[in-house]
């Protein structure tokens, strides 16, 4: 560490209005400090781009503070320890934590978790074994509470969360239907992920398609997209149905409020529960060991598939993020920054 | 019972389009049969008109079957046994059950419950001690789960359900805010029912009024009206807030779907739960003893007030029902049909 280390990072240059463009991002090179006592220097191998980051680009108070203009963006990463001044962390260890959108990051070691490279791929810790996986696991099982024989419908089903929701629901004995935005994704859901049925929501009104694909109604709707999907699903929910409100990717770039579901009051007569959640909440952390045991086990037994779309190079991260919001990914969208040593 | 008994009943003459009118109802006199083995003949003393009945006037499948044109309407009553052929039921007993919108009713005794005339007034069994009371109790406590110090907002607060929701929430140590549709009702909520604050929703946008009346946000919103109230409340909910979807009286006469809440997706970041329920569900029946003990106790100790608007005479029942949907009642709207003997 004699020579000064330099590293590149993506800064938020300006706040997007509507859909983000390349002009909202800036690639900046800065000196990487040496780790202080208790800190580690991490070389980032894979960084995550996630839909929730769009919300942080607005200057709006939410469950995470907004990104600051002129500062690096942030997000999940898997990296390798280059230099450690923390007990229990060695050079070469694989870790996951925040500190993405840059090549190197220095932070207190206790902000990272060590990961076992033997369970799945390293990047799986950003996907099925990471935040999206935990979101699918807790959202479906703890909030959706699917019972064998029930029908589970998931939107954004070819995404990182949706794909695992569907696979877990199948393992729990449910009939699983998914929606996605292209014929290729629909094929992927049916042929690769084992969905019972799947459809391209661009082919026609979702409400009509649900009549055909969910003839017995929906017991659990896992909502990743909001908008038309949510209204159509409410209309097909069975009594005592559960709607897991996970995200609303159809609305993240919206510059004006989208219409709400006109049929929400069906929730009274049908005794529906709609529940929003944020996976990073303390209350969900106790489920992490169960999640790693179950999903890790399913991965090893090939009962669950890891699916990802990999973009190479930090300079391509803005493009990856913009593409994610346009649905260019199948499975988890990750950016590969470096190879492990 | 030698002479044939005749009784009048209100039939549904035609299905209302939009707001019901007197022309949708017909007063008919028919012979009252003698009770068979296991049955009782009940003289109805008070009958209930309730908002949910509007839904039953449409030819739509819901959690209760629709009323039939040319047939008597139905609903909750408190009556007195005139003639019993059922073990355990004596002439003069007070009972409550279905069989309203008529002067006399003959039915199996096990469809009635005997009521104790010493707890509150007889008509209270249609209000605070009846279905609306149970709705308030279960909806607020089991679904809303209010904690001392939290803010509870209830719409339709001067109605049969809303008024008790507010009073129970006060007893649980909450700050209670209510909305209603007239200055007199607002005064009633503040001065008679002990609400911390109350407002006339006709005075201005609900969202603006909630800024003023719920400066610390809302933890539990008990929704009786839907529409603008629901959207405004979602906008003021605190993290982990609960929205109890009890009814949507603002929409019962609607002939086209009303706009849904445009901000429903705030439910994700704020981790909101919205839950619809129907009090007549088997799953809520186990709470009936707790309800009668608690609310009965509070009534006797004068901690809860019985509030009702009484209309006299079966021929006035349609008018009472139409008035209910227009908000002409304070507290429970009941129709007095006869005096006890």
From TrEMBL, chains A, B:
<dbReference type="InterPro" id="IPR020843">
    <property type="entry name" value="ER"/>
</dbReference>
<dbReference type="GO" id="GO:0016628">
    <property type="term" value="F:oxidoreductase activity, acting on the CH-CH group of donors, NAD or NADP as acceptor"/>
</dbReference>
<dbReference type="InterPro" id="IPR045010">
    <property type="entry name" value="MDR_fam"/>
</dbReference>
<dbReference type="InterPro" id="IPR011032">
    <property type="entry name" value="GroES-like_sf"/>
</dbReference>
<dbReference type="Pfam" id="PF00107">
    <property type="entry name" value="ADH_zinc_N"/>
</dbReference>
<keyword id="KW-0560">Oxidoreductase</keyword>
<dbReference type="InterPro" id="IPR041694">
    <property type="entry name" value="ADH_N_2"/>
</dbReference>
<dbReference type="Pfam" id="PF16884">
    <property type="entry name" value="ADH_N_2"/>
</dbReference>
<protein>
    <recommendedName>
        <fullName>Enoyl reductase (ER) domain-containing protein</fullName>
    </recommendedName>
</protein>
<feature type="domain" description="Enoyl reductase (ER)">
    <location>
        <begin position="18"/>
        <end position="335"/>
    </location>
</feature>
<dbReference type="InterPro" id="IPR013149">
    <property type="entry name" value="ADH-like_C"/>
</dbReference>
<dbReference type="InterPro" id="IPR036291">
    <property type="entry name" value="NAD(P)-bd_dom_sf"/>
</dbReference>
């Amino acid at each position: 560490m004699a020579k000064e280390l330099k590293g590149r990072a993506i800064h938020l240059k300006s706040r997007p209005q509507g859909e983000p463009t390349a002009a909202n991002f800036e690639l900046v090179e800065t000196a990487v400090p040496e780790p202080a006592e208790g800190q580690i220097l991490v070389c980032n191998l894979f960084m995550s781009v996630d839909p929730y980051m769009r919300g942080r680009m607005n200057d709006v108070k939410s469950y995470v503070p907004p990104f600051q203009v002129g500062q690096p963006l942030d997000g999940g990463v898997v990296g390798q320890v280059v230099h450690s001044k923390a007990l229990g962390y060695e050079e070469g260890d694989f870790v996951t934590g925040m500190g993405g959108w840059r090549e190197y990051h220095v932070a207190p070691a206790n902000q990272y978790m060590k990961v076992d490279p033997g369970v799945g791929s390293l990047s799986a810790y950003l996907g099925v074994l990471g935040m999206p996986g935990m979101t699918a696991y807790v959202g479906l099982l703890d909030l959706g509470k699917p019972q064998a024989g029930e029908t589970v419908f998931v939107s954004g089903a070819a995404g990182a969360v949706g794909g695992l929701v569907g696979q877990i629901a199948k393992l729990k004995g449910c009939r699983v239907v998914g929606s996605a935005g292209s014929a290729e994704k629909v094929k992927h859901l049916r042929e690769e992920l084992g969905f019972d049925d799947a459809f391209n929501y661009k082919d026609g009104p979702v409400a009509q398609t649900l009549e055909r694909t969910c003839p017995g109604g929906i017991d659990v709707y896992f909502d990743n997209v909001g908008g038309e999907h949510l209204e159509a699903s409410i209309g097909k929910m069975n009594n005592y149905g559960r709607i897991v409100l996970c995200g609303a990717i159809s609305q993240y770039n919206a510059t004006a409020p989208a219409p709400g579901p006109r049929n929400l009051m069906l929730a009274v007569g049908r005794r529906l529960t709609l529940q929003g959640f944020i996976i990073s909440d303390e209350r969900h952390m106790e489920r992490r060991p169960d999640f790693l045991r179950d999903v890790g086990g399913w991965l090893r037994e090939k009962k669950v598939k890891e699916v990802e779309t990999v973009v190479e190079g930090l300079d391509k991260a803005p493009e990856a993020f913009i593409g994610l919001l346009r649905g260019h990914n199948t499975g988890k969208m990750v950016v590969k920054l470096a190879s492990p040593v």
